[in-house]
Amino acid sequence: MAGNREEAPDYGRGVVIMDDWPGYDLSLFTYPQHYYGDLEYVLIPHGIIVDRIERLAKDIMKDIGYCNIMVLCVLKGGYKFCADLVEHLKNISRNSDRCVSMKVDFIRLKSYRNDQSMDEMQIIGGDDLSTLAGKNVLIVEDVVGTGRTMKALLSSIEKYKPNKIKVASLLVKRTPRSDGFRPDYAGFEIPNLFVVGYALDYNEYFRDLNHICVINEHGKEKYRV
C-alpha cells in the first residue's frame, strides 16, 4: 500500500535522471585539459556523486545490519565507487556502538569493447570464490546495463553458498536490452548513454575525470581501439 512505512524500502532505482535531462555545461566545471573537445556535457557532478554515495552507505548499513561484510569490488570501473562507499561504511561503524568488520576483495570483468556491450562476459583475475562461502557479500559495481554481466557473476558466486548477497551499483542504465535485473542499491538511474569519468572508462581513458560525463563522437573516435 502506498505510503505504508512498514514496507521494505526500494533502494534499487536511486536518483532518476530523465531522458530529456540536458546535463550541465562543461564550462561550469573544471576537468582535465587533455579531454577538451572529447565530451558533450556533465551528467552528474562529482559533489552530487559523493553525497549520493554517503546516503547509499547509510541505506546499506540499515538494511544489512551490523554484521561482518565481505565487499567484492568489480574492477576497474568500480574501484573509486567502492573506495568511497567503504570509507562511508567504516565511518558509520566507527560512530556506532557496534564494530563491523569489512574485508575487500577484487574481481575484474570484461564486457565492453569500445562503446558496445559484448555478448559474453570475461572474468579476469580474482581470488578463489570459494572463500565467500557463508559470508555476507556486498558486490560493488560501476554500471548495470543489460544485467547479463551481473547475473553471470551472481550465478558463479551462488555456487559457493554465501550467507547473503547484495549488489550495489553506482549507475543503472535504462536500456531496451535490459533483462530486468535490478541491483539492491543504486546510486543513479540514467538514460541509455555511454558515460565516462569517476573511474568509468572508454578503452582505459577518462578514469581520471572526477565528474560523470557523456562522451561525444569525437572522443569515441579519438580513443577507439
From TrEMBL:
Top enzyme category: transferase
Gene Ontology biological process terms, A to Z: purine ribonucleoside salvage
Family per similarity comment: Belongs to the purine/pyrimidine phosphoribosyltransferase family.
EC number of the protein: 2.4.2.8
Pathway(s) it belongs to: Purine metabolism; IMP biosynthesis via salvage pathway; IMP from hypoxanthine: step 1/1
Protein name from the UniProt record: Hypoxanthine phosphoribosyltransferase
Cofactor names: Mg(2+)
Keywords, in A-Z order: Cytoplasm, Glycosyltransferase, Magnesium, Metal-binding, Nucleotide-binding, Purine salvage, Transferase
Gene Ontology CC, one term: cytosol
Pfam families xref list: Pribosyltran (PF00156)
GO molecular function, one term: hypoxanthine phosphoribosyltransferase activity
Domain Phosphoribosyltransferase as annotated: residue spans: 47-202
